[in-house]
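New to this. Explain the following:
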Amino acid sequence: MGENEASLPNTSLQGKKMAYQKVNADQRAPGHSQYLDNDDLQATALDLEWDMEKELEEPGFDQFQLDSAENQNLENPETADLNLDSIQPATSPKGRFQRLQEESDYVTRYTRSAPKSNPFNFCRLLKVLCTAIILFIFGILIGYYAHKKCPSNATSSAMLGLQLYQEILETIQAEDIKKSFRNLVQLYKSEDDTEISKKIKTHWTSLGLEDVQFANYSVLLNLAGPSASSVTLRSSGQCFHPNGQPCSEEARTHSSQDLLYSYAAYSAKGTLEAEVIDVSYGNADDLKRIQKMKNTTNQIALLKLGKLPLLYKLSLLEKAGFGGVLLYIDPCDLPKTANLSHDTFMVSLNPGGDPSTPGYPSVDGSFRQNRSNLTSLLVQPISASLVEKLISSPNSRTKTGVCSPLELPNNDERIVNMQVQTVTKFKTVTNVVGYLKGLTSPDRYIIVGSHHQSAYGSYGQEWASSTAVITAFIRALMLKVKKGWRPDRTIVFCSWGGTAFGNIGSYEWGEDFRKVLQRNVVAYVSLHSPIRGNSSLHSIASPSLRQLVIEKNHFNCSRRANCQETNISSVQIQGDADYFINHLGVPTVQFAFEDIKALEGPSFLSEALFPKHARKIEEMDPIFNLHETIAKLSGEVILQIANEPVLPFNALDVALEVQNSLKGDQPNTQLLALASRLRESAEQFQSDEMRPANDPKERIPIRVRMLNDILQDMEKNFLVQQVPPGFYRNILYHLDEKTSQFSILLKAQERYQLLASNESLQEALSEVLNSINSAQVYFKAGLDVFEDVLAGKN
């Protein structure tokens, strides 16, 4: 199943043959194991001494002088070989021949006077000597020009790999992606989730992808109700739909679908009449300030989306006693080009997977929990135009273009009646999974994930963009496979279902195959929503993959006429990578085009899912060259991870990320000291193990396999058990680009200031300390294993 493991073959050395094997050391085959047990090595050396002395004492040896011994390379210990796979030049003891020459009385003891020879023998020796000199000079010339013209093995291998990748990727064309995209958005919307899945499976199979399967799960979905939710002002009696339009038959008919899909999945259902209290972004400071002024029990919070995970903010509101939430996006947080004031959106309150089977897969026979709502709050997304009506404020943007954030005056009282209607049903969610089996390491998986539209909702065209990109890469890859090529590691292509409801498809599949995935998954490459803008390439990568992403971005820049500096970070992202990052600790990478203004604004606005007409993909990328760029960048990363003998992960970057995450106003000295030891271990690991393994001359299969196992699992040390709702369990990922500290420490310090209790802070410090210590022990144990193998103890 795994990469080929080298064995340590038994070697038998007998009699005279032993000594000549020592002489002909330069003829050994490359790739032999470096290691042998020390006792065996000493015994072998003693045998050699005995055999050598026997050779010296045999009749006829008198013809050989010291010079002839040198001609047989006897003085060079680094070419000496016992034909034992476990001896390498760097670790071999000095051979018997070298030690003989180092003895001061070597010549007097072993050089005997040559017998007298006749002229015939002299001429014969002279001919042999001349022939040897000519052959020697000729060999030097051949070696010189061969070395001059031929690149080294490492360079040659790298060039061949790069050439192979380019041959595959150059077949990816923007026009093909455009055709695929248009075919996808025109697919018939059926009443279940299988129609689009069938189309994708059929297409992938026709391209030649082997073993394409369905993975179906019956899950609990929270769907839009039979009629739209509403918000009514008690003072005037005016009723509004979430988009700000009056509750009239005409408004319902004009935009019925958009109104139905403006809801919070897994919110509590019902009706609540209460005062609206503006909590701004709903962080701990906002709530602390508000609770000093007003009673928040069973009131309705007017909450802005962004800056923090929605689930975390809702948990704070729930603890503060609120009964309902009106959720909106402030126009000032959006780029000027994004006119979404009247647009409604959907959010999911599901942290991940089927709510009825938390932590275990939704397979036949599984116990189903009754969890129709995942919060006690009534949550309703509304448009910015409705907020303006509630606070009696005109348009937020002035004539000069300066944006004034929406805000409800503290002394104003607004009492509203909010009605939330949703329906909970069990439905089938389908994943499409296709495999391209690896040649040498079929049990190591690179997972490439996109997602497809669910028939239960219509939330933009990014799903078609995602599916078109992954299909373009499959097409290019299979063209090469049909010619006989195959990657070393297995590539698994996944189109996930149920993403909009909380990444349900990927979670259920991950829980279903958890044991296998924990052991075998090497990396996850996300193609979730690749085109969100057209002005800046935004790269998200695990710390261990950051160097690889930087390298690919630089190479991509060299191919483009105008290339801006790209943004690379390790931050929380939306989409199906969630399970692989937070539950499996798998190194992850994602490329996407964004608007620069959107990157400068608050984070977590992407939690909102807008309907299909929000901003069409073809307006942002009319000729689909951005799609082509994403496909090629992602494809090159996939190919390199799938084919490089040593995984292109950087252990030292993980340690550096930990040190950077501990910087702050009040650094913890204990954590800093532990992080310093982690860095030392990572530096030693990088120098002693990774550097030699990347040289083909020093590469040994069993050591490469051991090294790769360590590299693929190192981020698992940073999975913590307890985190605030909406926060990543993998603490290597920050909340956003603006914060560099560990997110759980930031929130714990905030909670400490709010509640004047250091219990949660101590828990967070303990989680971080245990993670760093685990990583340091992990690297140290890896180094010890390699040292044991080197000493021949294994």
The first strand starts at residue 210 and ends at 224. The chain has three domains: 165-219+425-643, 226-391+407-420, 651-791. Confidence is low (pLDDT under 50) at residues 1-117, 147-155.
